[in-house]
Amino acid sequence: MEKILVLDFGSQTTALIGRRLREMGVFAEIKPGEVELSQDVLKDVLGIILSGSPASVYNGGPAPRPFIYECGLPLLGICYGLQRMNVDSGGLVERLKNVEYGAVEVSMEDGGEPPRIAESAFLNGFPKKTFRAWMSHADTLSRLADGFTLRAKSASGFPAVVTHNKKNWFGVQFHPEATHCECGNDILASFAFNVCKCNKTWSVEKYADEAVELVKKQAGGKTVLLLISGGVDSMVCGALLLKALPNEKTHLMYIDTGLMRKGETEEVLEALALLNAKNTHIARAGDLFLNALKGKSDPEEKRKIIGDLFITVQEAEVAKLKLPGDYLLAQGTLYTDMIESGKGCGKNARVIKSHHNVASPLVAAKREKGLIIEPLSALYKDEVRALGRILGLADKYVMRHPFPGPGLAVRVMGEVTKEKLDALREADAVFINELKKRRVKDGSKTLYDDIWQAFAVLLKERSVGVAGDERKYGFVAALRAVASADGMSADVYPFNINDLIEISTAITNAVKEIGRVTYDVSSKPPASIEWE
């Protein structure tokens, strides 16, 4: 299948490049930035994109193999990728005194060398002379290499778009893959269709067929065990496994950690029944997890404890099941989990937060031994939902809001106790139920359906209040609700203030331990969606 090759130098948004191209019907394959560009790697490749990176080119940053500049394929450098191309061609990159982050205005330049046909084809993807781009860099092109021509500048006067006057090389000093980048999809589409001459040959339906075959190949006839939570990712993973593998070879295990939402275990049992799985197992281990977390406040430590104990409990339960010793562990890991845990395609991604199904030492050891199947690890949440529908899952499960693997432990700030968990569980249930009852202004859907993710957080602090005529010293709950397309960036959900006031009142009336409610108005970035 023809494709665009994306070289990953560690950017948090590298996979978004691939995702945007896939949305356009173009298959994109992500490889480590330093990959050897062999015939197998370049088979059916029509163009190459060099991603961004947290590194600097003048400070030992990762570099592609030199052959990339000799292979004759069109190249598009994004942010660090452009800087890498410029330096590798003899140009200069230097540190900015004032960094460019977030939305920055970019203006196209009319001067310079008249564009060749290929350059014009690329520049046709810029429908506006001036647009707002999404920047995230502290370095700039201080001297263009021979052959490069400046085509646009940022509002600060720094190079924003360049083209090469002899080769099909192009570069942008911003992130067209970011949701907030105006004209971003037009720019990527221009490279894929106008320059690389790609055809629309990819779809989620095709991915579903390929994923089934991939799972069959990875399993190789072995028994597979999936740790299922009832959330979207593990449900879709379970449906995929049951379609690809013999039912008797597929085991689904739910571990009740005591860190779940209200009514979670009952919903999971219902979901497993709908999957028609023959081998389902429930392990109740709430006391074990609560004891292990006693006195622990650091979020990364809590995540690792939960991840390791998850596997320890699973192994103890597996021993009872007497599964074969070479059984495989399946997980509904998404690409966002891998990226935020510093486990992207290459070795250059920075750790934002550890996901228990990625960074736990025991999970990492299993992955190293090739004993883990993660068929969703190249997908984003919305793509997983689309895949779930193709596999026959109902919207009740496919459209559930994301829920972190460590559960409520990372929504209780500081030490986790039973009292805090019980209070948070009730507050979260009230919040979600209120969202499901309330509708958007035009009445077309509920607030729950309009929101990407919503949940309650219990803060460390207690706050003085009044209950009746008495002084009350209660917990503080923070509500979080965001709008997003993929979880890599997110905006604050713009509630009607009356809805927020009424939801707050509903929580404090229903949960006596909570005396105050706040609303988190931080976007991602700079904040993450979860608090820990």
The count of β-strands is 18
Shape designation: globular
Order of adjacent strands in the largest pleated sheet: 2-1-3-4-9-8-7-5-6
The CATH architecture classification of the largest domain is: 3-Layer(aba) Sandwich
The class by helix and strand makeup works out as alpha/beta
Entry keywords:
532 residues; alpha/beta; Rossmann fold; 5-stranded parallel sheet; 17 helices; 18 strands
Question: How would you portray this structure in words?
Answer:
With 532 residues, the chain is α/β, with parallel strands linked by helices. It has 17 helices and 18 strands. It has helices spanning 14-23, 39-42, 80-88, 117-123, 184-195, 204-219, 232-244, 264-274, 286-292, 299-321, 335-340, 361-368, 381-390, 395-398, 418-437, 447-450, 497-510, and strands spanning 3-8, 28-32, 45-50, 75-78, 92-108, 130-143, 148-154, 159-164, 169-172, 224-227, 250-256, 279-284, 328-330, 372-373, 453-467, 470-483, 491-492, 514-519. Helix 6 crosses helix 13 (381-390) and helix 7 (232-244) packs across helix 13 (381-390). The longest helix is centred in the middle third of the chain and has 23 residues, at 299-321. Residues 338-346 and 348-357 have low confidence and may be disordered.
Summarize the structure.
33% of the residues lie in helices and 24% in strands. The chain has helices spanning 14-23, 39-42, 80-88, 117-123, 184-195, 204-219, 232-244, 264-274, 286-292, 299-321, 335-340, 361-368, 381-390, 395-398, 418-437, 447-450, 497-510; strands at 3-8, 28-32, 45-50, 75-78, 92-108, 130-143, 148-154, 159-164, 169-172, 224-227, 250-256, 279-284, 328-330, 372-373, 453-467, 470-483, 491-492, 514-519.
